[in-house]
Design goal:
By secondary structure, this protein is mainly beta. The protein has helices at residues 42-45, 55-60, 352-356, 368-377, and strands at 13-15, 19-22, 25-28, 33-36, 51-52, 71-75, 78-81, 91-92, 100-105, 109-113, 121-125, 128-129, 132-134, 138-143, 148-150, 153-156, 183-187, 192-195, 198-200, 214-217, 220-223, 232-235, 238-241, 255-258, 261-264, 279-282, 285-287, 306-309, 312-313, 316-317, 328-330, 341-344, 347-350. Helix content is 7%, strand content 33%. A hairpin with a 2-residue loop joins strand 29 (312-313) and strand 30.
Length: 378
């Protein structure tokens, strides 16, 4: 155990067989705190029930967590293949549905990357529709409430090169250039949080699609169409749009962007949704080729209303869907804006508590007291 060498000496992990120390936190390994490091040899982990060197063996040891006792998988920097990229067999679902790399039924599961840079802890596959799979291959199906990720990358490298900065040999060229449906995560839970997490693919990205409520906090997304989570609250995220309709639809709550940066790489018109649903954009900056038209969808329904405030394109204020101005509500000067953001004691506060609290007072960013205080003082 004293021979353990962290893959990234600039952001080191200490491991002594029973404890993992990272970023000032000493974690005692146990049934709810597992350690995964792909560098470790089979001999090094022999007889240690809480230490693993493959994602599959670690997943087999997971058990359902709870809000007070989450099931945490602490992951050292490495590329962890959800599905063997060298297996020539074509993946297909037994019932002809979606083929999944791993199906995990584990509420309150926490994917914890032991790295400040999320690009250093990668959960990967490289299969998509007609390229290594029959159906839209998807890394994970995750069942349960309270699932979280922090400082990890979920990547389907079917149509994107995998470059691994810490060890070039862990990288891999994309399976092929034709852009096919290559997905990340389907889930069915509530109260999900992804923080400092990267979601990489192109078509049908599916970052935790199926979540009832999900907060994406300082995450990064790369995708083309039919890709994003339509119930997501995107806070301080960066998004690269490689084509014109990143959402298929946004349902129920709609999707909201607060203080985000969106890079439009589309040629021609950029929309948000392909089918129906609402989108809110607050303090969000879009960069695009000059003259790119920004719209909500190509033919917005007459009754559709989307909400915006403080939106810029290439540094200048912009009204989304200027050709259909009735579909855009500018919240400047309206009380409604407080539901998304407000100023309190000289600071901008993003009201994630209001947007996520539902009927059970969920408050993943611990904002409730500040919101109530601002309410009293206003």
């Amino acid at each position: 155990s004293c021979q353990y060498v962290s893959l990234n000496p600039d952001d080191p992990i200490l491991f002594d067989g029973t404890h993992v120390t990272y970023d000032g936190q000493r974690i005692k390994l146990g049934p709810y705190d597992l350690f995964l490091d792909g560098q470790l040899t089979d001999e090094a982990i022999a007889g240690n029930p809480y230490v693993f060197n493959t994602l599959q063996s670690a997943v087999a040891a997971l058990k359902p967590g709870s809000e007070s006792q989450p099931m945490t998988l602490h992951m050292a920097p490495w590329v962890y293949w959800v599905d063997d990229p060298d297996d020539p067999a074509v993946r297909e679902a037994p019932s002809g549905g979606t083929p999944y790399g791993l199906m995990i039924d584990c509420p309150w599961l926490f994917f914890h990357g032991l790295s400040k840079d999320a690009a250093h802890v990668v959960l990967a596959a490289n299969r998509g529709q007609t390229m290594g799979a029959k159906g839209n291959f998807t890394l994970f199906r995750l069942l349960g409430d309270g699932i979280r990720s922090e400082s990890v990358t979920f990547g389907n490298y079917c149509n994107v090169d995998l470059v691994f900065p810490l060890k070039a040999s862990q990288g891999r060229p994309k399976r092929g250039p034709a852009i096919v449906q290559a997905q990340l995560i389907h889930c069915n839970g509530d109260k999900l949080v992804a923080k400092n997490t990267r979601f990489i693919s192109r078509l049908n990205l599916c970052p935790f699609v199926g979540a009832r409520r999900i907060l994406f906090d300082q995450c990064h997304f790369e995708s083309t169409d039919d890709a994003l989570c339509g119930t997501g609250l995107y806070y301080a995220c960066t998004l690269d749009f490689y084509s014109s309709k990143p959402f298929y639809a946004t349902s129920g709550t709609g999707a909201v962007f607060l203080n985000c940066d969106i890079r439009v790489l589309t040629h021609g018109r950029q929309y948000f949704t392909k089918a129906n649903g609402q989108v809110g954009l607050v303090d969000t900056r879009l960069e695009s080729a000059p003259g790119t038209y920004l719209g909500w969808r190509d033919q917005p329904p007459l009754m559709l209303r989307n909400y915006q405030y403080g939106v810029t394109q290439n540094g200048r204020p912009v009204l989304i869907d200027a050709e259909n101005p009735s579909s855009s509500v500018d919240m400047t000067g309206k009380a409604l804006l407080d539901a998304y953001r407000f100023d309190h004691r000289g600071e901008v506060v993003y009201n994630t508590y209001n947007l996520l609290r539902g009927d059970d007072d969920w408050d993943p960013q611990g904002m409730k007291n500040r919101v109530l205080l601002a309410n009293m003082e206003s």
